[in-house]
Specification:
The complex is a heterodimer. By secondary structure, chain A is α/β, with parallel strands linked by helices. Chain A has seven helices and ten strands. Helix content of chain A is 30%, strand content 19%. In chain A, a hairpin with a 2-residue loop joins strand 4 and strand 5. In chain A, helix 2 packs across helix 3, helix 3 crosses helix 4 and helix 6 runs antiparallel to helix 7. Chain B is mainly α. Chain B has ten helices and no strands. The chains are: A alpha/beta, B mainly alpha. The interface between A and B is medium-sized, with 27 and 21 residues.
């Protein structure tokens, strides 16, 4: 077992006060020589549903396919996310990880089980949980500023306050100059930054990010990883980040949760104890990602088998794809 | 530039042909007037305010009728687009009603409302309502689903969701339908006005016929075309351009 990734989820330090910088909880003693943020000893408390920011208990979703079969998409998902924690959910495509976010966002009802925010069950969408979609989903008929303002306008926040917060959050994502621009005038990376600003502007407790950087080129994505990490540490939000990219998950997350392929179950949780800020190309990130990928590989192979015709058994072999970005 | 040249060439040729035919006097002038004759009729019509009044009355009617159509059509279209039951029932009925020329509602309107403004408005509404409804339904269906999800996610509900998200999101997909609705409203109005003498351009047109004044008939026809064309060119083209600029869509040419 490696020193970088602890396989069993359970006892990690829990920040008592979210404002007290929960961002850099543990630094693995042997991690890197690079001077990372200093680890602080904190009182350790057991994770219990009462104090979880997001609590999923026995969450199930099944639906009827077009030929009338009942398909179980999510199977008894149990997950507790602490306030201020950055949790990445990885799994092969089709494992229901995006669906999971839609359920938490309240955009779709679950079949059974419970979603708790601060211990209260979720009923429909709410601005305490804002989703950032894979495609940017910004409103093309509004300017950048109006997009950021939108959630606040729906909440009925007075105009002066809206203006002030809009420029604050645009500055946070370094887009203050583009307040009057329309969405189509921005690049892909800028659009996702606007989406982040729009989500933050409603001041949600939880950000739900659904593969937000999947469609971006590598450089832009690296840049946005840095920005997201910075914004997260500045705002102290709880983030649930869905991705199929294990390296990205390790780069960003305090914890990586692995889902199985159809039905989606929590296969394992991996606390990532590398110092921040991290880098995608860091060998320690790569090594940690490979460990997770070893577990993910079976699920990917199962998903490939389901996708291809019978007889053809495509496989990704151990260590072949492990070192590179998958 | 080239387009402008083509326009000029085409319209001067048309004008020349008209002048030529009129000057040749193949048909008597009271049946085939010269362009100057029509010009004089236009001038006279505006001079004694007949045309001004007629235009004002007609525009007022069409705006009220079309306005009601747009509001009703959006509600209906939204209902049809978002409810399976409504889609199968009302949706099907609407499509079949489309084959009915709007003026066929005239006898019914006369019996219900009598010879009145209401009857004319009714015909105008029936003429354009279907187009607007189908346009809204189409727009709502073609609109990317993610906008609705994002709107709900950001706290928009009910009317706010419709007004701030669903409507603007589906507008680019319904402009052509709104435009068609306008054209139908305008045509229905003129037809109804011709059948029911009560000011308006349709009546002025019929008056030309009654007075055997061919120049006036053609003058009013030109007015009707010009107004339809202007509204299309200014209001709807402007709306399209505006949406294209905002959404970053390239104009379809």
């Amino acid at each position: 077992m490696s020193t970088y990734v602890r396989k069993l989820p359970g006892h990690f330090p829990i920040p008592v006060d979210p404002g007290d910088d929960p961002r850099f909880p543990v630094v693995s003693a042997t991690a890197t020589g690079r001077a990372g943020p200093v680890a602080v000893d904190r009182p350790v408390r057991a994770v219990s549903p009462e104090i979880s920011k997001v609590g999923l208990s026995d969450l199930c979703l099944s639906y009827r396919t077009q030929n009338g079969e009942r398909l179980l998409a999510l199977d008894h998902i149990n997950l507790q996310v602490r306030t201020g924690e950055f949790v990445c959910v990885v799994g092969p495509s089709g494992c229901g990880k995006s669906t999971l976010l839609h359920l938490i966002a309240g955009l779709h009802p679950q079949t059974s089980g419970q979603i708790l925010i601060d211990g209260k069950p979720v009923q429909g969408p709410g601005t305490d949980r804002i989703m950032i979609f894979q495609e940017h989903a910004l409103f093309p008929w509004l300017t950048v500023g109006q997009n950021v303002e939108f959630g606040m306008k729906m909440k009925g926040i007075p105009k002066a306050e809206r203006k002030e917060k809009t420029s604050h959050y645009l500055r946070l994502v370094h887009l203050a100059k583009f307040e009057k621009s329309y969405i189509h005038q921005l690049s892909g990376g800028m659009r996702q930054r606007v989406a982040i600003a729009r989500a933050l502007a409603t001041e949600p407790d939880v950000l739900l990010m659904d593969e937000p950087f999947a469609a971006l080129d590598a450089q832009t994505r690296d840049l946005l990883h840095d920005e997201l990490e910075r914004i997260w540490s500045e705002t102290g939000r709880t983030i649930l980040f869905v991705t199929h990219n294990v390296r990205e998950a390790v780069r960003l997350g305090d914890r990586v949760v692995l889902l199985t392929f159809r039905p989606g179950r929590v296969k394992n949780g991996f606390p990532v104890e590398l110092p921040r800020p991290r880098h995608l190309e860091d060998p320690n990130v790569a090594r940690a990602a490979r460990e997770i990928l070893d577990e993910l590989r079976d699920e990917i192979n199962r998903s490939l088998e389901a996708e291809y015709n019978d007889g053809v058994k495509p496989r990704i072999e151990p260590r072949v794809a492990g070192g590179s970005r998958v | 530039m080239k387009r402008a040249v083509r326009y000029v060439v085409f319209y001067s040729a048309l004008f020349g042909l008209w002048t030529l035919l009129a000057e040749l006097k193949i048909w008597p002038p009271y049946l085939f007037p010269t362009p100057w004759g029509v010009g004089e009729a236009l001038y006279a019509g505006f001079q004694d305010h007949t045309y001004w009044i007629a235009i004002r009355v007609s525009m007022q009617r069409v705006l009220i009728g079309y306005g009601i159509s747009v509001v009703l059509g959006m509600v209906l279209g939204l209902g049809v687009a978002s409810n399976k039951f409504l889609e199968e029932t009302i949706g099907g009925l609407l499509v079949s009603l489309q084959s009915l020329p709007s003026i066929c509602w005239w006898p019914l309107a006369l019996l219900w409302f009598g010879l009145s403004q209401k009857a004319i408005l009714f015909v105008v509404i029936m003429g354009s309502l279907l187009s607007v409804t189908l346009a809204m339904e189409d727009g709502r269906k073609q609109m990317p689903k993610i906008f609705g999800q994002a709107g709900r996610n950001l706290g928009a509900r009910g009317f706010k969701l419709f007004w701030y998200v669903l409507l603007p999101a589906s507008l680019p997909f319904m402009v052509s339908g709104l435009k068609q609705g306008w054209a139908f409203a305008w045509r229905s109005l003129i037809t109804a006005e011709m059948l029911y003498l009560s000011l308006g351009l349709g009546q002025v047109l019929m008056m030309g016929r009654d007075l055997n004044d061919m120049s006036a008939v053609i003058a009013v026809m030109i007015l009707i075309i010009a107004i339809g064309y202007l509204v299309d060119g200014i209001v709807f083209k402007g709306m399209e351009r505006h949406l294209q600029n905002k959404w970053g869509l390239t104009p379809a040419t």
